[in-house]
Amino acid sequence: MLFSPPRPQSPEPCSRRAEKRPDVIYHLGDWGKEPMALIFGREAREVVERVKVLLSPSP
């Protein structure tokens, strides 16, 4: 998971910093910028599984 810098224009800067393709990039928001999370997967089912993991209670 990567935190993107303030006011990102695209996920490319975060992807370049990572050693591998990130599963999630998030931004906490800023003046005029809503908080957001980008969740990536090869197909829709993979994205749904990642969202389920994120929403599940921690052990």
Structure described in brief:
The chain has helices at residues 12-17, 44-55; strands at 2-3, 24-27, 36-39.
Question: Keyphrases for this structure?
Answer:
single chain; 59 residues; alpha+beta; 3-stranded mixed sheet; 2 helices; globular
What features would you describe in this structure?
The protein is of the alpha+beta class. Helix content is 31%, strand content 17%. The chain is built from two helices and three strands. The chain is globular, with a radius of gyration of 12 Å. The model has no long low-confidence stretch (mean pLDDT 78).
- DSSP strand content: 15-25%
Number of strands: 3
Low-confidence stretches are: none
Query: How would a textbook summarize the main sheet?
Result: 3 strands, mixed
Element pattern in H and E: EHEEH
Walk across the major sheet and give the strand order. 1-2-3
Question: What is the helix tally?
Answer: 2
- Supply Rg: 12 Å
Secondary-structure content class:
alpha+beta
Gross geometry: globular
Percent helix, as a range, is: 25-40%
Q: Report how far the terminal alpha carbons are from each other.
A: 19 Å
SSE order and pairing:
Layout: E1 2-3, H1 12-17, E2 24-27, E3 36-39, H2 44-55
Parallel strand pairs: 1-2
Antiparallel strand pairs: 2-3
